[in-house]
């Protein structure tokens, strides 16, 4: 047990002992959502109804505190509304074009108001394209680096995060301007201190740097597999180890890993639950698809069956997102196909500025799809067994569904927080050993915890138990804008970023 204090408030931290092998809570059906073993044949068919609906019709019961000892069950009501949540969902595009000060001058940083406006459409992510067009054979000027620092500081203040890409070409003119590899690596060296200083507001990096828009096509200087591998390895070495880099195609990941491993990267080398999130090069390379739902291979994103199998297996553990491009045929972006495709590859984020979004709106499925991009956790029911008294032990069993397409990618802790309703300064934090990144998209979970209650619990007082999924960055931990909101009606506390589980009266 660990204790620490904060100004004006006492907080006590406990570590939870997990309990296995207890009875199944009634109504917690493991088969509501099928297990995903990478076979698309296991994808559910939305035309037959959403499997999740059978557990979303429960009505909320009173949070009236029970007498102890007790067996206490709470059910909940699904919240179908759209709302902001960190590190998921639609994103708004932003760009900086750093031109030579003698010709065009430097752009001004975006305003705080502009960054905060994203939230009006339930957006918490910005795609930030940083174009270094005039520095093909020179250092990035300090003034440009300072503008980037200012931008990230404003992202923190706005409660938003960034999908970050750097590039040298944006107008698709031939020949495409691109520096030699030595200058790209030099610019990475310059940018690395900023990346690490502001990693808390960087959701994911994108490969970038080469090709038009940094999309790795129409290359001029960095053209060989060896050069691409060397560039990405340098990139991985300079970016924070707990952040991922999304490459344009699964084929690009295979060639990069071939360079790093000095050998082939096959389906046998794909990430598993055992090798995910271990800071290895492999575990840190995801995918950004910039032509999703355009045709059968997403305009060259998939080079064949092997690429699809690779990404299908790995997308439970790495970030997948991007944008669409042109739409000539809406065959591949109708509601049913879109749902299955985004689920199959576990999409976490998508641009809100393309025609497919308008198509979904016109066909009545945009709300359902947009709310499911990324994670979407739902409380279905909870039961408690034991004695709610000072020093007592009680068992919590929670039925939880991730109704979203994807899981969390960046680390978060599960905190169960107990507060005294009459005395807010009395606060206890239980830190679970479980990892919420294990809550995969379109899966149903039975989550058990055994809590040992503090000796200082006051008999006769009423207490509330909360779930908190905060950002792990110390400077963001207590900011509710960066905590995860559960899609359950009536449980979210906007002031704290906590989700209410139940209430109890101490014996």
Describe the protein in words.
- Helix 4 (181-197) runs parallel beside helix 5 and helix 5 (225-238) crosses helix 6 (250-261).
- This protein has helices at 53-56, 112-117, 142-158, 181-197, 225-238, 250-261, 305-314, 335-344, 355-362, 366-372, and strands spanning 2-6, 9-15, 70-75, 89-97, 125-131, 161-167, 202-206, 245-247, 285-289, 320-322, 349-351, 377-386, 393-402, 415-420, 426-431, 443-452, 462-468, 492-493, 498-505.
- The protein is built from ten helices and 19 strands.
- Residues 1-11 and 14-63 have low confidence and may be disordered.
- Strand 4 (89-97), helix 2 (112-117) and strand 5 (125-131) form a beta-alpha-beta unit.
- With 507 residues, it is an alpha/beta fold.
Question: What's the SSE blueprint?
Answer:
Elements: E1 2-6, E2 9-15, H1 53-56, E3 70-75, E4 89-97, H2 112-117, E5 125-131, H3 142-158, E6 161-167, H4 181-197, E7 202-206, H5 225-238, E8 245-247, H6 250-261, E9 285-289, H7 305-314, E10 320-322, H8 335-344, E11 349-351, H9 355-362, H10 366-372, E12 377-386, E13 393-402, E14 415-420, E15 426-431, E16 443-452, E17 462-468, E18 492-493, E19 498-505
Parallel strand pairs: 2-15, 4-5, 4-11, 5-6, 6-7, 7-8, 8-9, 9-10, 10-11
Antiparallel strand pairs: 1-2, 3-12, 12-13, 13-16, 14-15, 14-17, 17-19, 18-19
Helix pairs in contact: 4-5, 5-6
